[in-house]
């Protein structure tokens, strides 16, 4: 355990989050996502896990240390429901609330069609699978920057 670091953030996840640079994308996904096969195509090349928690809890932990990119309009992306593109299920509403709390303001969570989401995921830095069993608990985040002290 480390002081000030959410205990859900294991050493492998912390390493990957630290190694990411500005603009690198991170996938956080549910148990049904093709996480291992997608992860093998990412820059990191292997699947990371935060098991036995919901996607929202995992994302809350991740966003406690990861800044979101303020230079792009789609720094937070959700997978759209097939055939119901405008519907936002409870798992995505929970993640929206976690994002807003982490950023201290309302933050846009952009919907992306399922297959387009898979293609974006393949270009991500890494994939973190969670224990989420609800459908459409899949998200992409772009890492932002931490400004110098006093700015």
From TrEMBL:
Record carries keyword Isomerase: yes
UniProt keyword terms in alphabetical order: Isomerase
Enzyme class of the recorded protein, top EC level: isomerase
Gene Ontology terms for molecular function: L-fucose mutarotase activity
Tree of life domain: Bacteria
Name of the protein this chain belongs to: L-fucose mutarotase
Catalytic activity entry: beta-D-ribopyranose = beta-D-ribofuranose; alpha-L-fucose = beta-L-fucose
Pfam families assigned to the protein according to its UniProt record, in alphabetical order: RbsD_FucU
EC number: 5.1.3.29
Xref: InterPro entries: RbsD-like_sf, RbsD/FucU_mutarotase, RbsD_FucU
